[in-house]
Structures are given as C-alpha cells and as structure tokens.
DNA sequence: CTCGATCCCTGGACGC
DNA sequence: TGCGTCCAGGGATCGA
C-alpha cells in the first residue's frame, strides 16, 4: 500500500528513468479511475516529462508545453495516485502487458510507461494551470517539510482523534495507515487520543518519530506488505522494521505486552495498550466527558 | 466540526 | 477442488 515512502521511492525511480522522455502516444484500458481520460489521450502525446516528484501520496509528472501550443497554459502535469495496488513503471515495449494494465504511454526511447492497478483504487488526472494549482492546494503540509511549529498548529488546532488527523490528507499529505501507527507507537500515543489534547512534549515526540520513521523507510525503499514494488520491480524492506502495524497479538518491542488492534477513523489501528495509554474516558464509553482535565 | 457507514474494486485467506 | 464469505484500505460522499 503505497504511502509517502513508497511513493517517494517510485518518484525517485521514475525521475531517474524517464526524465526527458517525450510521450509519443497513449493507450487506455479501463478508465473509471481517471478524472479526464479524453484529455489524457489528447494532451499527453507530444509532451516531454521534465520532472517526476512526489506530492503527498501522488506522483506528479511535470510535462513540457506542447510544441505547437498557441497560448501558454501554465504548468501542466499528470497526477497519479497509486491507491492500494497501483504501479507505474517503464517497461520494454516488447514485454507482454501484465494483467490490469490500464494506461500505456509509449515513450520516444521505445519503452512504455505502464500503469497497472488491480483494484483501481488509484487516480489519474491531467491538470494544467489554475486547476493544477487548485488541486495541489487541497492538501496539507508535507510531514518531511513541515517545521515543528506548523506540525503542532495542524495537530493541536483540531479536535479529531490523532489517528484520524494523521490520515487526513488535508492536515498532512502523504501519511497512511502504516506510518501513522508506527509513529504513534514510537511516540507512545494512543490512536484515539484527541489531537487538541496532546501535550506539547507529545506533539514534539510524534513529529520527530514521524519524520525519523519516514526517512528511514525511504532509505529502505518503503514497505512491501502485499504487492508494492518499485520501478525496478523490487520490493521494499521497511516492513521488517514495523513495530505495531500488522502485529496484533505479538509482543510489543518495548514491553512485551501484546499488540492490540482497534478500529479508529474506520481503519485498523495497531498499538501497545501498555505503552500507548488510552485517553481518559476511553473508547468504550464515547460519552461526552471533558473539561476539568482541560489543563493540557 | 466530527463521526460512522457505505461504496468503489480485486485478490488472497479462510471455512466447509 | 471449488465455492462462498470476509477482509484489506484511500478517498469521496452522505447522513447523523
């Protein structure tokens, strides 16, 4: 499941592999995950990819203007979200298309940039000018770029549960279920804790934990749980270092207590019930008890 | 404002 | 062996 480190890994691979290549033609398969398939067919051919970078969980393939463009349209880009099972990689045109190959862009070096996605939970869109700007503005701060000040403001200015906040792409862009759970475990914060109720010191711990984990995961080329593969078809290694995610019933690496799983924000959330203390009033009651304990 | 529920989609795990 | 069922999960959407 591609989150920030996995998408970063793919972006770096694509940046190395296809920067400078011109798109010759585009062939589409199923298009229900594409915002504007007809524009993709019309706008991509003839443009070169001049940069590939990550934006949250999106890959941003920045495109040059068309050679015969009559009017400037501003920046143009292909946005690609890998969803759960998406993969974007250049392959030799002669290679048979894998099952679930839905977009094929022939490049000017004879290779094909292919988008393969069994579940089609991903998303693809061609955007330019203002609509590109508007789209990018919808997302929150990149957790690796945000300073402690901004991180704190975004987490504390919110009454939702910390797990929900970490997953909310309008708060932070790029964090998904795995790295949310891993950073909460590291910072010893219960996933149901309210963001606004976290102490300053806890927020700082979380900030450091999240950045450290994301950076380390990028070095290890991401986590391969089910089928994540990078541009070269290689799995990541970070799944070997998970401390909470997917470890229900297994001993906590710190205290040996069995890792528990609860649903928060509609997602499985793994945590250590000993290290990550439940917020007062807990999950089971859900009643509206507050104040008094307001004192941070 | 925040929540849960529901839908999208397919493959893998599991039970019988 | 083969079926049915459940589950995974990011994100949009809707109603509470």
Task: Please tell me about this protein's structure.
- By secondary structure, the protein is of the alpha+beta class.
- The chain is built from eight helices and ten strands.
- Helix 6 packs across helix 7.
- It is globular and about 65 Å long.
- The chain binds a DNA duplex (16 and 16 nucleotides) through loops.
Summarize the structure.
This protein is α+β, with helices and mostly antiparallel strands. The protein is 27% helix and 21% strand.
Q: Which properties best describe this structure?
A:
DNA-binding, single chain, 4-stranded antiparallel beta sheet, disordered C terminus, 8 helices
Number of strands: 10
Strand content: 15-25%
- Please give the order of strands in the largest beta sheet: 1-6-7-5
* Biggest pleated sheet: 4 strands, antiparallel
What's the helical proportion of residues?
Answer: 25-40%
Choose one word for the global shape: globular
How many separate helices?
Answer: 8
Structural class: alpha+beta
Secondary-structure element series: HEHEEEEEEEHHHHHEEH
Mean pLDDT: 88
Low-confidence stretches: 282-296
Topology:
Elements (H helix, E strand, L loop, with lengths): L3 H15 L4 E6 L8 H7 L5 E7 L2 E6 L12 E6 L4 E7 L8 E7 L3 E7 L5 E6 H9 L10 H9 L5 H6 L9 H10 L13 H20 L40 E5 L2 E5 L10 H4 L11
Antiparallel strand pairs: 1-6, 2-3, 3-4, 4-8, 5-7, 6-7, 9-10
Helix pairs in contact: 1-7, 4-7, 6-7
The chain binds a DNA duplex (16 and 16 nucleotides) through loops.
